[in-house]
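This section describes the prediction task in plain terms. A model, or a person checking by hand, is given the sequence of a single protein chain and must write out its three-dimensional structure as a string of tokens. No templates, partner chains or ligands are provided. The sample shown here is typical of the held-out split.
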Amino acid sequence: MFVLVEMKHVIRTPPWAFQMKLHDAIAEELNKKLANKVVLNVGLCISLYDITKLEDSYIFPGDGAAHTKVEFRYVVFRPFMEEVIIGKIRSCSSEGVYVTLDFFDDILIPPTGLQHPSRYDETEQVWVWEYDVDGDKHDLFMDPGEQIRFRVTAETFTETSPVGPQKPETASTSEENKEDDKVPYMLTASINEPGLGLLSWWANM
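The expected answer:
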């Protein structure tokens, strides 16, 4: 679920940080820059693991800060495909079941990834697994807050960096809203196999 990723970056250390040890100042700047951010095709950055190389620092004319090329390793959240993880149901909609890991919320189990047969209950706003026992159907509700075991089946990275300003005649409110709704990193999951789904299902069977 968590991996160590090797990275390189040029870090700008402001003058007021010169009183700190260079290693500590750069570590602080790296965490400010990367912690809780998604790096395209890398994953969700969690925390700096270590700094493996510091090159010479340079101060450029007109800028009192020090610029240092750094090589480091960062702890990144990026589950491997088919990994089984336990999370909590955040909410449900007709699009599927949304799951949270507390520090990461963008996990979707689409209808095709649910136990079969399942239906969406509009009144309760939850998905229901119609569990069959010798011809008798029992409704097993997927309520928000319940712990759920799921398998990661796909990941999607989306570029969310700002683009240049649009011309007034081509810009539209709907397009702007789509830009705001973009999720930089999303996981797709499934629970349609024995042992997966709500932990309470299998504890009671």
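For orientation: The chain has a mean pLDDT of 89.
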